[in-house]
Structure formats: structure tokens, C-alpha cells
Design goal:
- The protein is of the alpha+beta class.
- The protein folds into four domains: about 1-95, Winged helix-like DNA-binding domain superfamily/Winged helix DNA-binding domain (Arc Repressor Mutant, subunit A), CATH 1.10.10.10; about 110-220, Rossmann fold; about 230-360, Serine Threonine Protein Phosphatase 5, Tetratricopeptide repeat, CATH 1.25.40; about 405-520, no CATH class.
- It has helices at about 30-40, 45-55, 65-75, 130-140, 205-225, 240-250, 260-270, 275-290, 305-320, 330-340, 345-360, 365-375, 380-395, 400-415, 420-430, 455-460, 465-475, 485-505, 510-515; strands at about 1-5, 5-10, 15-20, 25, 45, 85-90, 95, 110-115, 145-150, 160-175, 175-185, 190-200.
- Helix 10 (about 330-340) runs antiparallel to helix 11 (about 345-360) and helix 14 (about 400-415) packs antiparallel against helix 15.
- The chain is elongated.
Length: about 525
């Protein structure tokens, strides 16, 4: 295939296709003229030469036939002599081909629909199936993901396309029904994600419903693929399991609380197959994301709600463990969960992490988990080195990279390495400016006399109840995972100092006032 302007020509010049799907078919003589003109673009081809290309030895062919055929060819191409895009007239001499082939620039998008074959019969309808499907897939993905159609798509030889997924469509018509075979693939590896078989009738009023149902099935397959926490071929840079589950939900919703989108899907999967350890771990990870995303909820999670979720996390993780030892991704996820809930499982989490590290090809996720274990044990320098190894493998600015920066900042806070905290915080804010007035409040130095204006304003306008929720949240998700009391206190000291400066001791969570009375004295 080769593209000139808005037409994609078959290599044999038997046909060309417009971007809207309309097909133009050429006669033998028209093909002969096209081949001759395209062979030497921007070069004059005389009528006599074109006559030779047509087989001009025949007595019935004259140069007037050449002019007639050129005019007919222009009409098929949507061209004109006055504003020629393809064929330019050199008066008194002949013609030349003016169009340049369009470079096959790398394509970029979330999902590309293509290649498409066998849909010619369907394109007679005003709104063809590919367009319906594109619209419905975009809607199923919340309208935030770029969906493309490229009927003649072929992966670039150089591999420069930046596509997350492709959807190949093949079809054959039977009366007024089109039988469709669709293959969903990963864009970079072309590995098959899922296959679909459907029958579609463009004459039925419910054609949009058919496209909507198929789009829903495709979105579900994409979610399952993204949420998969037990990939067979994990890459060294793969994200940890809880981030994959979060990203899967974010394909389908504008709500940053991804656990809500995932909850019913994961619960259904677990009920359908409780014996599969992946289903139990995925539910536990969604509970973990639920807790991470609870900051700012109204009303806030109660102690009883938080405890109930952690009890379920523990139960799901331990339930899955016996069947997880041959799957390093599952082991890393279970280790993550057991460390987080702070119920005396740190040594078990460490053993599972080491076991997974010996098997896993997901080096970045493994280094991240080893760093968290080291930090919990008070080995801050070792944790720093491990975080650096993970960060080196993460794509700069990716969610995984941001996650690693936050974990490293918290470890530096625990070790009272405030200079490094400030340096890393600046790096974080470069990638995520809005983090300065959200997560940035957790990283502030207790020695600072005056904070940046946005932070001062955020703290001053924060209701006492919300300030209490902020300090409680920091204790639960970060401080308590450190075994040394001094490290816990270091994590909490900055936020509590500045909350008290604005709102007094009552704005500090009761669990902190009880465990660290020295933070709220004076």
C-alpha cells in the first residue's frame, strides 16, 4: 500500500481507498496510466509515451484517447485540471504526477483499529461499522483514550509506532449479515490479548447497540489485561500489581478513586472462581487501593471500617499464599499487602520478597519491594540504594516513577535526611505540580518557619477535622510501617508541627497523640 494525499493505493494499482472507506477501482487502461505516471513523479510524460504505456500500436488508440482517459482518471481520483493534486497538465506536451507519497510516520494512540479487511459491502451504509465501533470504544474508555482507525495498518518496520493496543478486523458478508472476526493485540509485542467473533447487520436499527456491546466486551478485555497481576512474561520495568489494577480502572473512569470501578469486577471474578489465588490477591489489592485513596473522603473512613478492610486484606493474602509460590508477581503482591497492614508479618513479607526476586524478571517491582522491607527494618541506606535501582528502570514521569519517588521520600523522612527529602520533593513537583499542595504537605520540614504560600494557605484553610484525618492517614499509610519508633516519629513530625501551628493539638489524630505525646507537648 502507498498513500498519496487522501488516497491509499494498492501496490498493483487495481484500487484505491479514501480515508472514509470509499473504494475506487481502476480499469486496465487506467492502471497502465497510473503506473507510468507514478514511476517518474514530477517528470513530464508525453502523450506519446502514455500511448505506448497503453499499448499504442493498436490502430484504435490515439493521443485523444489519452486525454479522455486522463480526464476520467482525474474524476475517479477526485482531482481537477484547474486545481490538480495528482495529475498536472503540461499544455501541448503531456502530463506529470504531482503527488508525493505520504511518509508512514509513526502512529501514536491507545488503540488502533486496523488492519480491516472484507468490509467493502458494509461501507455502503451511511455510518459504517468501524466508525460505530470507534465511537463506542472511545465512550467505553471514558473518552480519554485516543482511538484511531487505519484500515491498511501495517506495523512500521522500524517499530516506531507508539500504540498500546491494536484491533484487527476481518469480515465476510452473508446476505445482509456481516460475520466479524476481531483480534485484540498488544501494540508493541503484537501478542494476542483476546479474540472476538460477532455477527452484525447494518440494516437493523439496533446496529449501534451491537457496536456498543462489542465495545463493552473489548473494554472488559483491556481491563483484564491491564489488571492482570500474574503476567507470564513480566518485563524488568513492569509496574507493581496494585498500580496495574489502578491503571486498569483509570482506563474506564474519570474518578481517581479507581477502587470503585474495580470493586464489582473483582468481586464477580472472585465469586466465580474462589480457588484461583489471583482473584483473592486482586481483591486484597483493591482493598489496599481503597485505603490509599481514602484521603479527603467525607465522611472519613472510621477506625472500624479501616480495620475491617485490613482484616479482609490479611485473609485474602494468606488464603492465596499456598498456591502462589510458583508466581513471583503474586508473591510480591502478597508481600506488599502483609507489610502494609502492620500485623506482625514483616519477616514473612521479607521471605516472600526474596523468593520472588529469585524468580521474577520484573526487576523494578522487585527492587521496590526489597527497598520497602529494608526501610521498615530501619536499613535506610540499603533502602535508598534499592529505590535508586528501581527508579533507574522506571520510565521518567510514569506513575511507577512517581510512586517510587514518594516511597523514597518517606524513607528519607524516616532517616531524618531532610536535605534529600527537599531535593526529591522538587523532582516530584516537576513531574506532578499539584502534588505540592496534596502530598507535599506530608513532606514539609518541622524546622521550617514559613512554608510556601500554597501550603500555608492549604493548612490555614483546612478544617480541624480534615487536619486530623491528614495526620491519621500519614500514620496509617507510612509511619506505622517502620519498626523503629524514632523513624515513625520522624515521618510524622513535619506535618504535625505545622498542623499544630495553625490549629493546635486537637487537630492531631488521637492515635498519634497517644503514641507520641512528645510531638504534641508545648
Amino acid at each position: 500500500m502507498v498513500r498519496y494525499n487522501d488516497l491509499v493505493f494498492a501496490r498493483d494499482m487495481i484500487s484505491a481507498e479514501h480515508d472514509d472507506g470509499r473504494t475506487v477501482r481502476f480499469t486496465r487502461q487506467e492502471r497502465a496510466l497510473l503506473f507510468r505516471l507514478v514511476r517518474e513523479p514530477q517528470t513530464l510524460v508525453t502523450r506519446a509515451q502514455l500511448l505506448d504505456a497503453l499499448g499504442g500500436s493498436e490502430a484504435t488508440l490515439t493521443e485523444r484517447n489519452v486525454d479522455y482517459l486522463i480526464n476520467r482518471l482525474r474524476s475517479r481520483l477526485g482531482d481537477s485540471a484547474r486545481a490538480a493534486r495528482f495529475i498536472v497538465t503540461q499544455y501541448g506536451e503531456g502530463y506529470y504526477w504531482a503527488a508525493n507519497p505520504v511518509n508512514n510516520d509513526p502512529l501514536s494512540g491507545f488503540l488502533l483499529i486496523g488492519p480491516i479487511s472484507g468490509l467493502a459491502d458494509l461501507r455502503t451504509s451511511a455510518n459504517g461499522f468501524p466508525d460505530h465501533l470507534k465511537q463506542e470504544i472511545s465512550r467505553a474508555l471514558g473518552g480519554r483514550r485516543k482511538v484511531l482507525i487505519c484500515p491498511h495498518y501495517q506495523p512500521s518496520v522500524e517499530g516506531g509506532d507508539r500504540l498500546d493496543f491494536t484491533l484487527e478486523i476481518s469480515a465476510h458478508a452473508d446476505s445482509d449479515v456481516l460475520h466479524l472476526a476481531l483480534v485484540l493485540r498488544q501494540g508493541r509485542t503484537m501478542q494476542v490479548v483476546d479474540r472476538f467473533r460477532r455477527a452484525w447487520s447494518p440494516r437493523l436499527e439496533k446496529s449501534s447497540n451491537q457496536a456498543r456491546a462489542l465495545a463493552g466486551a473489548i473494554a472488559e478485555a483491556l481491563w483484564r489485561h491491564e489488571a492482570d497481576i500474574a503476567r507470564i512474561h513480566a518485563s524488568p520495568t513492569d509496574r507493581p500489581a496494585h498500580l496495574r489494577i489502578h491503571d486498569a480502572a483509570m482506563m474506564l473512569t474519570d474518578d481517581t478513586r479507581s477502587w470503585k470501578e474495580n470493586a464489582s469486577r473483582l468481586q464477580s471474578a472472585f465469586q466465580a472462581d474462589k480457588a484461583d489465588p489471583r482473584n483473592a490477591v486482586m481483591l486484597a489489592l483493591n482493598h489496599y487501593n481503597r485505603l490509599l485513596q481514602s484521603l479527603g473522603e467525607t465522611p472519613p473512613l472510621s477506625d472500624a471500617d479501616w480495620t475491617a478492610l485490613e482484616v479482609e486484606i490479611e485473609a485474602f493474602a494468606l488464603r492465596a499464599l499456598p498456591e502462589a509460590h510458583d508466581n513471583p508477581d503474586l508473591l510480591l503482591a502478597i508481600a506488599k499487602l502483609l507489610r502494609f497492614i502492620d500485623r506482625g508479618f514483616l519477616d514473612l513479607a521479607a521471605r516472600l520478597t526474596d523468593e520472588a526476586f529469585g524468580q521474577s524478571t520484573a526487576f523494578a517491582a522487585s527492587f521496590s519491594m526489597k527497598a520497602q522491607i529494608a526501610a521498615s527494618r530501619g536499613e535506610i541506606d540499603n533502602a535508598t540504594a534499592l529505590y535508586d535501582k528501581a527508579i533507574e528502570l522506571a520510565e521518567p514521569g510514569s506513575q511507577f516513577h512517581i510512586y517510587l519517588l514518594i516511597l523514597k521520600i518517606v524513607a528519607m523522612m524516616a532517616g531524618d535526611k531532610r536535605g534529600m527529602v527537599e531535593h526529591l520533593a522538587v523532582e516530584l513537583y516537576d513531574f506532578v505540580p499539584r502534588a505540592q499542595t496534596s502530598f507535599g504537605l506530608f513532606f514539609i520540614s518541622p524546622k521550617a518557619k514559613q512554608l510556601a504560600a500554597p501550603m500555608e494557605q492549604a493548612l490555614a484553610s483546612m478544617p480541624v477535622a480534615q487536619a486530623r484525618q491528614f495526620s491519621d492517614y500519614l500514620f496509617r499509610i507510612s509511619a506505622r510501617q517502620f519498626q523503629r519508633r524514632a523513624h515513625q516519629r520522624n515521618v510524622l513530625k513535619g506535618l504535625t508541627t505545622h498542623i499544630m501551628r495553625h490549629h493546635g493539638n486537637e487537630a492531631i489524630a488521637p492515635v498519634i497523640r497517644k503514641r507520641f505525646p512528645e510531638l504534641v507537648i508545648g
